[in-house]
Specification:
This protein folds into two domains: 139 residues, Fructose-1,6-Bisphosphatase, Chain A, domain 1 (2-Layer Sandwich); 110 residues, D-Maltodextrin-Binding Protein, domain 2 (3-Layer(aba) Sandwich). It is of the alpha+beta class. The strands form two sheets. It has an eight-stranded mixed β-sheet with strand order 2-1-3-4-5-6-7-8, with helices on both faces. The protein is built from seven helices and 13 strands. The protein is 41% helix and 23% strand. The protein is globular. This is Inositol-1-monophosphatase.
Length: 272
Amino acid sequence: MTQQLQASQALQAELLDLAVAAAERAGAFLRDGRPADLGVAATKTSAVDVVTEMDIASEKLITGYLGDHRPDDGFLGEEGASVEGTTGVQWVIDPIDGTVNYLYGRPAWAVSIAARKDGETVVGVVHVPMQGETFRACLGEGAYVGEQPLKAGAAPAFGQALLGTGFGYREERRIRQAEVVRQLIPQVRDIRRGGSAAIDLCDVACGRLDAYYERGLNPWDYAAGELIAREAGALVGGRPGEELSTELTVAAPPGLFETLQGKLDELGAWHD
């Protein structure tokens, strides 16, 4: 083993340990600090404000913890964290992925943290506090939930595939996404809308979904989950021949991925 490879593996191990610790700290804070009547007794405006405050506080907790251990790294976060850094390492953070689920007290929300080295994602952690699960992956080293290795399911026939997807917040986009679902759902087993892109990608990694697609994701939505899915054996991309992006994200095992990707392209799932 070369010294360069050893150094790379040591860095990934360090980044993984920090990401897991930061995600679990933030998850405990969000779980234990959520008001019991949030989304019930509160008005819409105040409820959203509380969630925004929790989002910001969670991101500050994460960036503070990581910054204490690696003060020269960069950050990219949903709630505004944007620091260049000088080490080539950038942390990509979603402090609450599945905010509406969190607002309503539904369990499908997660803390998502990825680490990129020189632009390439090398570590991904998705912590799901209400399920008691932490999904994790290092580049080239496989994916795990806890200590259990993950392996994406075998590709079913397209007509037997269970798909996951999500919807944006803008009316025009939602209308277009609903039309894609209307045309797609008669061709598959069923379609689920879980509310957290990070969890959906992990569900592909562990076989709870056969495939997942969505338009409109940001890097903090997919950075950790897509590495976990890839390291579990799934393919992840965008339109045919393209990388995943805000335009379109598709994840599925080989054999199903290509078929779904082609159908989504035909249906125009990549545009509003």
